[in-house]
Amino acid sequence: MLSCHPQLRWVLWLCLIEASINAIVAEPIPSRSLRSSHVPSYLAFHSSSLAPTFLPPTFQESGNVTCRYRLKGLQKEFTPTTSHEVSYSSLPAGSYTFQVSCDSPELTDVMPAEYSFTVAAPWWQRWLTEIVGTGGVVLLVWGILWSRYRDRRENERLELAVAERSAELARANRELQEASLSDPLTGARNRRFFQSMIGADASQAVRAYRGSEVYSHDHRDLIFFLVDIDHFKDINDEFGHDAGDRVLVQIAQRLNRVVRESDFLIRWGGEEFLVVCRAAERNDGALLASRILKAVNREEFDLGQERQLARSCSIGWAAFPWLPPACSDLPVEEVLRLADRGLYLAKQQGRNRAVGMVPVSMTPGIVAPASVTPAVMTPAIAPSAAGASGGKVLTRPDKYCTLEQLLEDNLIREALTLGQIADAAAG
What we know:
Blueprint: E1 42-43, E2 66-72, E3 79-81, E4 94-103, E5 113-119, H1 127-181, H2 191-209, E6 221-229, H3 232-239, H4 241-258, E7 264-269, E8 272-280, H5 285-297, E9 301-304, E10 307-309, E11 313-320, H6 332-348, E12 353-359, E13 365-367, E14 378-380, H7 383-388, H8 403-408, E15 412-418, H9 423-426
Parallel strand pairs: 1-5, 11-12
Antiparallel strand pairs: 2-3, 2-4, 4-5, 6-8, 6-11, 7-8, 9-10, 12-15, 13-14
Helix pairs in contact: 3-4, 4-5
């Protein structure tokens, strides 16, 4: 037999390893080196399966032949086998060497057969792909950050625009509110403003007097001054309505210089103005009326076109609360009627003057009528005060609520203040 010759033992056992997409087949060749010109040494990643077959270099029965194999790069130790075929699937990218050797009594000094090959890396693991991928990730992160920055800047711009718009709307609303509460010609407040504000002031004044039967000097009063320009209709008839408007504007300016910032100047209607002195003292009513007369009468009015005209004013005034709450429920509307009655009397008595409507006694009290028990008290004028004022003691079954009740019981006294311009100015 050919295998009995010792010189043949040096012949390497022959392998032919065939590599394809699914297998590499090894065939015996009479050489120490592996002939693999037809076997690919570079495998694509999707073809990374290896199934080599091998035969020992003997022509005898192979049952006594033990083979060992390993795939260098994947395995560290040789694996013994009696089979002539192995299989590797899904090899990771890298360089490999398949090695196989067989041992038998007839085979000595047999060098292992080997085959080297490379499994290509997938496209997503190649350096160019990694560079492109890294650049893409960087661009993506930059895009996200830029988008957030742009969105934040846009939100800030929108918030600023909304805030500016809100401020404009608030300012416009304030202007509209001011316009609705002001007289467009003179700039003074109007009746709507008066109605919106007087309730709180009146309540405060009433609370200040609650439980008190006498007035004290601590500026708890409201004083209403109704100011009317004397013979204003003649200005419109003789010089025109433009001249009359100029006089109204100047009247408002002069009154504004007299009243305090806390006071109200109201365009009451036509040529009438209402001055509301807040936190005032009723004993100063005549003095304040005198100042208003001087402010209006001190100089002529400019009618335009180099025309000048002197005009006086008439004033009627009254304080609120007109009587202490203990004996009076006289509301603001009735006190305004008192001031209007004073204005009427000032006009009737010759104009250019102020007439205040004040109680006949500055210390009204509570007395009991003879027909009722002492436990039942009714509002009246105190006897000493009535005697001092020349009146008589009067009693009522309830509190004073209207001007007519005051007139009926003769509780009103006139406080006269004269103006200081020529009678011609007053007409």
